[in-house]
Amino acid sequence: MPGSCTRNRPSETGRARDDGRVQKSMVKTYDKPFLLCVGAQKSATSWVAEMMRTKTPVWVGAFKEFHYFDRYSEIPSVRVNGDKRFHDRFKRLTSELPGMRDVARNRLIWLMDRLLIDSDEDYAEYITRYSSAAPAAADFTPEYATLPQVAFERMKAVLPNATALYMMRDPVARAWSGAKHRVSFIKSDEPILTDLDRFLRFLDEPLIKAFADYPTTMQRLQKTFPEARIGFYEEILESDETALAFINVLLGDLGFDPLEDASDIRRQVYAGQSKSMPEAWVPVIREKLDPVYKGLSDMGLEVPKTWL
After folding, report:
1. Strand partners, 101
2. Tens digits of per-residue pLDDT, 3-19?
């Protein structure tokens, strides 16, 4: 599948220090086409990543979420959780070393190198090295939606040819899916699915509030990536035809020919619990999240009718 790309070359950009300040240096950029998916969480980002991984020439890493730009977050849990996930994966893999198959050994090597990324230059070099045989690469990290403006500016500096993608889902449905996702990892948090007050407190957590703040993410994203692609979960996954059309839009953005085969295009990735939100909760949560709906409306963004 053809696609145009340019040769990687060094570019002078600001190199970030650990404290977030910038110092001048020669920082390598990734200059091929790049798909940068910045969220939102529980809005089909894993589905997009899987389609790119299995149906296109785009390189998607062994772990779809890189969590590199998390270092610019103003939310402490975001700065810590990304690296913690990789350390946990590292411990799980190394515990299986005696009987490890080749594919797992490769994942361990990729993971070790990911843990050593400590600068924008390291990030660009990692992507360049592991995607060298591919005409394009991608990073799908939902936490990027919660980052400050400086993070988006760093993304643009390191990934000058990136197509930015922001996926959105009805705020109420996304919040409920996020809660179920939390419980799947932290069983002690199960009351957030049965107790309305607990669920409301969950929505007030800094990270969860940031995930839900679509208008702020949109403003920051469009300031840095004016041509950012927006995708709505409900419209994209409505049918095989709409799903295929969306993937082809992204391929067009990256300079590739469209896919023709829609078989298995909507296969579910990381299915969550089937438990539905109690009907009595819906108007309460809708009212709480009303600023999100209003903020998008004030921006002139036309959202799916199912949201209204």
Report:
1. none
2. 333 333 333 333 333 44
